[in-house]
Amino acid sequence: MMAQDPAPVPAVSGSIPSKDICAPSVARTLTPAISVFRSLDELESLRPAWKELCQHCAADPDFFKTIIAKRPAFVRPHVIVCSAVTSPSAILVGRIEQRPWRFWLKSQNHRPEPVSVLIVPEGGVMDGGSATACHHLISEVMNNLRQGEFDAVMFGGLKKGTHLDDAVRSIPPLRCRDHSQMHVTQWISHLPGTLDEFLRRISSAHRSAFRKKQRKLEAAHPGLVHFRSFTQPADIEELGTAATEVARQTYQYRRGGSYRPSAEGKAFLELSSRNRWLRAYLLYVDKRPIAFWIGTLYRDTVRLDTTGYVQEFKEFDPGMILFLHMVGDLCKQGIKRLDFGIGESIYKSRFGDEKRETSTGCIFAPTIKGTALLALRCLRCCFENTSRQIASHFGVDHPLRRFWRALPAALRMKQGVEVTLACLMVIISATWQGWLKWPEGTLIATALCLITSMGIIPKASKIPPPKS
Q1: Using one digit for the tens of pLDDT, what is the confidence trace for 400-416?
Q2: Which of 75, 97, 385, 437 has the fewest CB atoms within 10 Å, i.e. is most exposed?
Q3: What's the pTM?
Q4: What is the DSSP string of 150-163?
Q5: One CATH from 3.20.20.105, 3.40.50.960, 3.40.630.30, 3.40.50.720 for 12-179
């Protein structure tokens, strides 16, 4: 049996205890000191230890200060340090953002309720694999919630089965704990020494098909097909222009994703190139960009951030042609791993050799506002999980996904609200009338849902998309 952890000591704001003060206390109680940093100036003293422990670019101190701190919603940093004797043994990197929240039952003219949220990005908890360190960090987060420093905490990229995931879901009391489980898939590929070894993971038929498409593209445009990589600060202007040209023709752009020209996006590319993180690739045909991949190298892992290709060249599969060229170049550089990011795609499961289940975990303050946020999140997650399971069971998840991708972002939100309310009304009416009995009640409820959806979905083609 594990020994019970001693009671945590009070947190010290913005300082790491010195050796003379900290060492005797630790020797007697074996309890690490907890420090909380609440300003950007205080974080400079933490930079060496932070840089050493950090394993993800989203939690890097340069990224935090250059990109995150300049966002409009940013309020202040909130970094918790667990120090053992003379140096930090674990760090939780977070930022407090002020977000508007409009409750459904209030008037549209009512001013949105401000919600203060502590955002902990993927890789933001650097615990060195220690369960004890996770316990102390999450316990301090709960203390900050009780003190009213923020209303909720969001942990991004929680890996299922890790000490952090267990701590987030077990330490908070029931009224503050996130009871929803919305796991998403994350694929990782361990890169070998050469592209040929990498391609041995797929069938010979697929290898032949990829090579045939590349030869077909080169035959259709002889001497005009070439690749280019971007890693230097001088390349940023051309990379941004070419990626934007390609991205505007992708479905991800219509969804609000893909690469978008923005001050933050350009600043991130400049930061990545200065720190030698940038790994970007473009495929050109007659000096026209037709596909791009943009990734970030951090430690020994390249994380793929965004991609896109021109639909006009779809028959040649330019995205896959460029992907294989990129993998060959990364193998030559000695890169060990390729992180495809969250979400399911055919190419991810085909080339990935490690599958992870990740989720977004939340902790809510023990207040009325925190309880309301918890209830709304549980309702939303319950509906989404049920909808996905039903769609997957009847085999209509892929057609629905294609339809969803075709909708503009603003219209998609409107459609989602209407369909949700319509389905809820049908289910409530069916329950009240006593129709939901197997099998008659289920069939009637399903038919009513389909009829209601058929009346809502045609609106998508009649409403013009918002101007970009």
Answers
A1: 666 656 555 555 555 55
A2: 437
A3: 0.76
A4: -SEEEEEEEETTSH
A5: 3.40.630.30
